[in-house]
Amino acid sequence: MTGLTRMLALARPRSARFVVGVLWGALATASGVGLLSLAAWLIATAATRPAVTALSVAVVLTRALGVTRGVARYLERLVTHDAALRTLADARDRVYARLAATEPIRRFRSGDLVSRLVSDTDATQDLLIRGLTPPLSALLVGGGVVALSTALLAEGGLLLLGGLLLAGLAVPLLAARAGRGPARRTATARTELATTLVDTLHGAPDLIAYGAMDRARSRVVAADEELTRVARRDAGLLGLGAGASALVAGLTLWGSLLLGVAAVADGRLAPIPLAVLVLTALAAFEIVAPLPAAAARLGAVRESGDRLSAVLDTSPATRPADPTPVPSTPADLGIRGLRAGYGETEVLHGVDLDVPAGAHVAVVGPSGAGKSTLAGVLFRFADATGRVLLGDVDLLRRSPDAVRHAVSGVPQDPHVFDSTVRENLRLAAPEATDAALRAVLERVRLDLGLDELVGTHGHRLSGGMRQRLALARALLTDPALLVLDEPTAHLDPATRDAVLDDLLSAAAGRSTLLVTHDQALLDRMDRVYEIRDGRAQRRALSRTTAGR
């Protein structure tokens, strides 16, 4: 399914609304053409000085057409924009639902993903309002106008038909073909600008520290200049399309005038119908005037549709099939033959390990061994093959939302939202009271007020404070399995030991899997597994309580 087809398919549930909008648009356009044709007849007839009563009906019709044109145009905009905005909301819902599977986020760069979420999704509205309604309205009204002109003068109707086909079909097709290249370049340039800008803003402290800010700023400026250059070329293309349509309209108008004058001289056409014929031809080109610009934009819309489809067609992290409820209380975790990785690189080659119910188990290994990949699979941030059994339920066959009701914890780089401490904690427990929130903050030794703002990405907090806030959020979920991916990485030794003691005390009786590189933490564990060469081996513990 192409990008354009996908966008149109999103509008299918509201096709009836768009049909009504097209009909209102056709009525508004027809009223405009009729208004000018009737005005031509009225002025030409008035020049013959008839009785005023002979013009009264035409005067009333002129007023009626003027009012109808405005009302119909308003209703057309109201109905089509309502349908388009609702379709846009559905498109956003689908994109966000697919992103909730997390895998697309790992496939696209952050700035590129922002561009797909905003500009490319908004292109759905552009297609429906500017690319769908005007052509259909032009098709309906154009046939009627050509029929009227043919009834007045056959050769005039044929000339008008040829002019409308050139201006409303040939010129837009050429504009659409010429706009394909600029559309791709515009999408690429927009993505590059968004990506470099996001990277520069997020990496500003490091760029300044290493004296690389000038180079980063130069990349942003270069990306902006490229986008401006491509946009200028796109504007030139739109201008050429409009100019070509105006040229065709002018030539057709002159042709209609010459044919009409010749017909009047031959006695085949009266002077008053000549005025109607010429001014009807002039009004007819208002029908197709928006089409070249819409066609020129079609390339950009198609490119946006393809990019949007790339997100919507991304395979979700899981393919749920097992309807068995996931355990909500501590249960044995058994991992068998687990294979997983990132991209095309497999880092886990058949991992087997066990976490008995209520046990505290650590996973260690060198950097890049796959420890965080294992945590990502348990969080359902990544897909895998093999079996991950919590009790008798295979988590790999359950939906991410179902799994996350039973498996929670702290990922390696937890996100802190730009809000208060209270709102960050209530992500995990929306109904939690302030007393419960203060209690969990005390358990992780975090001395913060609930109304304190943490700033964008938690920049008002230290690294250790952000980690402890994430720990507090995890404890509020009361999961059957608690997964901690380097939870004390940013803490000093004294605070690290205190926080881990508090955490393990709070997790007493709850299955806990600790992913860490810190060997000093292992004496608190019931079991330790080491991952090397993509496999897990259980290590012997020297303390007397080792191994449950």
Brief sketch in words of this structure:
This protein has 548 residues and is an alpha/beta fold. The protein contains 17 helices and ten strands. It folds into two domains: 3-312, ABC transporter transmembrane region fold, CATH 1.20.1560.10; 333-539, P-loop containing nucleotide triphosphate hydrolases (Rossmann fold, 3-Layer(aba) Sandwich), CATH 3.40.50.300.
Adjacency order of strands in the biggest sheet: 6-7-8-3-9-10
Task: Count every helix, treating DSSP H or I runs of 4 or more residues as helices.
Answer: 17
Counting helices, strands and paired strands, the structural category is alpha/beta
Radius of gyration: 34 Å
| Number of spatially distinct domains | 2
Keywords: ATP-binding, Membrane, Nucleotide-binding, Transmembrane, Transmembrane helix
Organism: Pseudonocardia xishanensis
Membrane topology: Multi-pass membrane protein
Subcellular location: Cell membrane
